[in-house]
Hints:
The complex is a heterodimer.
Chain A: H1 4-22, E1 47-51, H2 56-59, H3 67-71, E2 77-87, E3 93-103, H4 112-116, E4 122-124, E5 140-141, H5 143-146, E6 147-149, H6 150-156, H7 158-184, H8 192-196, H9 201-221
Helix pairs in contact in A: 6-7
Chain B: H1 2-6, H2 8-18, H3 25-59, H4 75-85, H5 96-112, H6 131-152, H7 156-187, H8 192-199, E1 202-203, E2 206-207, H9 214-230, H10 255-280, H11 296-317, H12 323-350, H13 355-378
Antiparallel strand pairs in B: 1-2
Amino acid sequence: MLGEGILKGLAETAKNFAGSFVDKERMITVQYPEERVQLPEASRNFPFLVYDGPDWQAGMRCVACQICEKECPPKCIYIEKSKDKKPDFVGKMQIYPAKFDIDISVCMSCQICVEVCPFEAIKMDTEYELATDDRFGGLLLDRHQLAKSNEYYHKIHPTEATEVDARLAEEKAKAEAKAKAAAAAPAKPATPASATAPKPATPAQDSTNVAPPAAPKEGEAS
Amino acid sequence: MVNTLDQIFVLLQHWIVGLLPAVLQPFAGVLLNVVAIIATFPALFAIAVLLERKGLGRMQNRIGPNRVGPFGILQPVADGIKSLTKEDVVPFRADAVVHFMAPVVLVVIVFMGFAVLPMGRNMTLVHMDGALLFYFAMGTCTELAVFMAGWASRNKYSLLGAMRAVAQMISYEVPLLLSSVTVVMISGSLSLDRIVEAQNQYTWGLPHWYIFTPWGLLAFLMFAIAATAETNRSPFDLPEGESELVAGYFTEYSGFKFAEFFLGEYVGMLSISGLGATLFLGGWSAPLAVLNFVPSWIWFFSKVMLSIGVMIWLRGTLPRLRQDQLMNFAWKFVLPMTLLNLGVAALWRFMDGGWLRWVVCSAIVLGTYVLVGRSEMRRRHYGPRSYRYAE
């Protein structure tokens, strides 16, 4: 009969109307500034730099190898190498970034920088409240703003951070064992193998693989 | 006591007028009534807007406005301040005078209708014999304001929107009038006061409202449909169509003029709800004889707000019609039904009171409704739509 559908529709909206007062499940609105949805662990938006220990400058994992800068598709990373060196997490002297800027207005959150980094130094952040009234300076983050502690990394991506820590500890242990072995047998004649031996296993391989192509590109970057 | 409460506004007015010198008294009395109307209905407009926004939100499982004041009850105030502080833009080539006049004309005309509505016992501003006629004369003028707005904006989309709006309003003006005529036929008066008086009787504690008769029910349904279309409410809100058009005829309006159109629309809703309540729902009379102790004006305003609530409910339920569906519905369904209803009302008037006229009139009304509904449903216009894609 004519009008039947209208009555059905009215019943449906009435059910919604009344139900919204009774049934908490119906009201799916999250009142954002006061309430927040827990972000999924895999969520990401912009990269940050991880540091170990209390001091962000001393503990910075980044060694300014510039792989991320070169791999970045929209070219939003700018790195300047330091002139001096500082010890990294295994105690080896490394250069560090004197300048590390990420323009998050250009960044497209692709995570390629994280995937290519051999030192577990750059990771994806989950911070999304980045609104600013200065669209150039405010969105260009320098190394101090980018530096976040390993504890923070554990907080936002616990599983991933634990894996990373385990891997780094393994590398460190391997490097220490090598150093001990090298110290225990000083008499042994230096072979070509021992020249690379004290270096941490994976990063060393990566850096030796990548370092040569990095060198010529440095000139064109500057 | 009950009587005092019922007549409290009338007594208050007499008391205030009594304070003034005798020369000013007639003038002051009218002025006081006008001020009361102009103060009451925008307040109801604010309540209606709030109800609409909160209610629609609930129907869609949203919360609705909840930031301004406790539970968002001050939202209309915030809206008002916002529209007052916005820039008033007049298009460069627009007819500035007519552009300015259109919203003013709309609001003034819409308020004119309240002059004849009985809002309680002895609470009519003008006791007019041809009150219904006056009301419809004023109601029809809103089309003028709409067309002024569309024409003066010098924007082809505004003009098209205005033409659509005027076409719709004129189409639904006819069934609106014809469904009201049945009431005039039965009560034998165009005076709204007398129409309410005719309904303010009780048999076994039940009221003699016209909606409780076969012809009255049909007339009320058709009146409700036509009134919804007349006030450009969903599902007949094509002239505005905020999701499809910009805003139809008031595209070029901003700031307070826009708010005036909004006010005009909602006050028009209140006004036509008031008329509907007066014609079919017994105006200010109580729904049961035992409830007669409640002041009459409470009944009138609660009926009006109930109608507004139903309009909001409909808006939350129904999708918008297409222009051709709108016109087909007006001319091929609502108009024939109201014409038939004239005959039914005449039959009701001239058959003796008794169960026979109930049976005959109900049978005619229900039978026609079912038959017309069936045949219309079978037609292409109302059934499920089939889509043909370009290949």
